[in-house]
Specification:
Number of strands: 13
Largest sheet: 6 strands, parallel
Strand content: 5-15%
CATH superfamily of one domain: NAD(P)-binding Rossmann-like Domain
Helix content: 40-55%
CATH class of one domain: Alpha Beta
Shape: globular
Distance between the termini: 46 Å
Length: 325
């Protein structure tokens, strides 16, 4: 590997991809290659192959994905499975064809069964039924893991291929999607509380009982984890993985109830009204917590506390709102 590798970050405009670019730049990497969707449609195989033949990167961070919350996953299942399958298959194959030996694939905690034991360990993969609402997206991400594993199994000895996968818990932070229908829980609640504050609404209603627990990781911590895993020498990495269990969880290490989350976001935004929970609406899974012991053993731990991360996320939301008006 060159001392200053040429690095392609797929999905550099997304929340995770942009954080990876920021992290690489802070660490002194200058030879970073990016393409917007207008410049390169990653679902088009011929275009992706031509790009790799031209650029010949040394490393690839595969952060490009079609993502969204429960509503988006349930409304557009065909788009979620097709686009994610095509992007990861095209990039991984083109990377191999053009001599890329180091690639990091970013997945999602939704790869694990709906009723997986908590905290969720890497070996829970494919041991049960997936959550129905995001099953197409989860299957695409599982396929990405298996693509990396399969290229490693077939081509590590002959070509030195070392393709790795990291599975983040729920992410939030700068660059998030604050769409009122298609966003995840933290950006959705930031928008809801902000609008309630601006409109002086006396109360904010939230689906469910507020008792389910969720884990949240600041996106810059995720980027640091990604760069950390990419930089590990193979012997060290292999000590904490197995040939058929090559992915690694990336989590904060603890979870919080939705009620506590809502109260923290309300305080961050400065909303002074009442928070009410509609128990007639579904709660979803009672708990989703990742077991990140393997990554912790490899020398990485989350650093950004939730209150600090939420303050940064809210400032990002305000900046985006100001730019739109």
């Amino acid at each position: 590997m060159p001392s200053s590798p040429k690095i392609y970050v797929a999905g550099h405009r997304g929340m995770v991809g942009s954080a990876i670019v920021r992290t690489l730049q802070r660490q002194g990497h200058e030879n970073i290659v990016t393409r917007t969707h207008a410049e390169l449609d990653l679902t088009e195989q011929a275009a992706v192959r031509a790009f790799f033949e031209q650029e010949r990167p040394d490393q690839v961070y595969l952060a490009a994905a079609k993502v969204g919350g429960i509503y988006a996953n349930n409304t557009y299942p065909a788009e979620f499975i097709y686009q994610n399958l095509m992007m990861e298959a095209n990039i991984i194959e083109a990377a191999f064809r053009n001599g890329v030996k180091n690639l990091l694939f970013l997945g999602s905690s939704c790869i694990y069964p709906k009723l997986a034991d908590q905290p969720m360990r890497e070996d829970a993969l494919l041991t049960g039924t997936l959550e129905a609402t995001n099953e197409p997206y989860a299957l695409a991400k599982i396929a990405g893991i298996k693509l990396c594993e399969s290229y490693n199994r077939q081509y590590h000895v002959s070509h030195g291929i070392d393709y790795r996968s990291v599975m983040p818990t729920n992410l939030y932070g700068p660059g998030d999607n604050y769409h009122p229908e298609n966003s995840h829980v933290i950006p959705a609640l930031i928008r809801r509380f902000h609008e309630a504050k601006v409109n002086r609404s006396p109360r904010v209603y939230i689906w469910g009982t507020g008792t389910p627990k969720r884990e949240f990781l600041f996106v810059d911590d995720m980027a640091l984890a990604s760069v950390h895993v990419m930089a590990l020498d193979k012997a060290t990495y292999d000590q904490h993985t197995q040939p058929m269990l090559s992915h690694i969880n990336v989590g904060y290490g603890s979870d919080i109830t939705i009620r506590e989350l809502a109260e923290t976001i309300g305080k961050t935004v400065g909303y002074e009204g009442t928070i009410e929970f509609d128990s007639s609406k579904p709660d979803g899974a009672p708990r989703k917590l990742m077991d990140s012991a393997r990554l912790n053993a490899l020398g990485w731990h989350a650093k950004v506390e939730l209150a600090t991360g939420l303050a940064s996320a809210y400032q990002d939301f305000l900046k985006n709102e100001s730019a739109r008006t």
